[in-house]
């Protein structure tokens, strides 16, 4: 089963362009050599200019984990450390003069792993500079996982495939938490993704899927309806928007 790896990290704002070159010249060539890696892309979150993620698709989970165990991943992370943002957390360490000091530490990258539960295309092709990525994360009621997948296959994918500018569609399911899903769509441009939202199609699809959403999220939606006010919860639907900074298909 196809597998998605999502590596999130923050960069030092002073080294954004240098890191992009590092990703293109070091990371992409290394990943292209790894068996099973189908696509790799560096994506930048908006509006936070220093929040990035490395998005990779694999033939299966075993090959992605072989890559982690091989030492190549650790080597690339170590090379990337000089570009990473310093954490707001300060830790004690021993200085070169053998004195105890407090100093900020680099933000550690966060890895999230997902199996691809459904997809609207067989592969990610092309290297379009304007390519835009939209990530919607949502929690589903444990007893309605299959119903959600079926609705996504029958309702969401056909709608998105007929939407101008929508290039690829993937439904992914978290390996760590089976009730957590991500709907990932790749667009020709930000303009196309914004037009999709403005058209009302996104709201219509949410309405068709809402009976499968977590009970906590449904409760929040009812509160908002009853009191005409926004309510924030830990299980809110999250919509992330990213520009593709660098990417390559290895197919």
Structure description:
The structure is a single chain. The chain has 251 residues and is an alpha+beta fold. It has one domain (3-249): 2-Layer Sandwich (Alpha-Beta Plaits), CATH 3.30.70.100. Helix content is 33%, strand content 35%. The chain has helices spanning 16-33, 61-69, 72-80, 145-161, 190-198, 201-209, 215-227; strands spanning 3-10, 37-45, 51-58, 86-94, 100-106, 110-119, 132-139, 166-174, 180-187, 238-249. Strand 2 (37-45) and strand 3 form a beta hairpin. Helix 4 (145-161) runs antiparallel to helix 6 (201-209). The two termini are 16 Å apart. The model is unreliable at 88-94, 102-106 and 231-237 (pLDDT under 50).
Low-confidence stretches: 88-94, 102-106, 231-237
Average per-residue pLDDT, rounded, comes to: 79
**Main CATH class:** Alpha Beta
Largest sheet: 8 strands, antiparallel, barrel
Query: In CATH terms, what is the fold-level topology?
Result: Alpha-Beta Plaits
Q: What structural category do the secondary elements indicate? A: alpha+beta
Using the CA coordinates, give the radius of gyration: 20 Å
General shape = globular
């Amino acid at each position: 089963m196809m597998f998605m790896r999502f590596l999130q990290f923050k960069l030092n704002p002073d080294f954004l362009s240098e890191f992009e070159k590092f990703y293109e010249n070091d990371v992409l060539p290394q990943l292209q050599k790894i068996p099973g890696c189908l696509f790799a892309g560096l994506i930048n979150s908006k509006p936070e200019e220093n929040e990035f993620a490395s998005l990779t698709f694999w033939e299966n989970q075993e090959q992605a984990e072989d890559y982690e165990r091989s030492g190549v991943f650790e080597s690339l992370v170590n090379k990337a450390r000089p570009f990473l943002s310093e954490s707001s957390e300060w830790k004690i360490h021993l200085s070169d003069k053998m004195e105890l000091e407090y100093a900020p530490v680099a933000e550690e990258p966060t890895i999230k792993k997902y199996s691809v539960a459904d997809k609207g295309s067989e592969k990610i092709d092309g290297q379009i500079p304007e390519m835009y990525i939209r990530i919607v994360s949502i929690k589903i009621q444990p007893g309605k996982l299959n119903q959600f997948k079926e609705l996504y296959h029958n309702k969401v994918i056909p709608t998105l495939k007929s939407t101008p500018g929508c290039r690829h569609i993937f439904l992914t399911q978290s390996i760590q938490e089976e009730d957590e899903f991500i709907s990932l769509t790749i667009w020709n441009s930000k303009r196309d993704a914004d037009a999709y939202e403005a058209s009302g199609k996104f709201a219509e699809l949410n309405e068709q899927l809402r009976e499968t959403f977590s009970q906590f999220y449904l409760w929040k939606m009812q509160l908002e309806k009853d009191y005409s006010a926004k309510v924030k919860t830990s299980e809110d639907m999250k919509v992330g928007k990213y520009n593709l900074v660098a990417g390559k298909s290895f197919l």
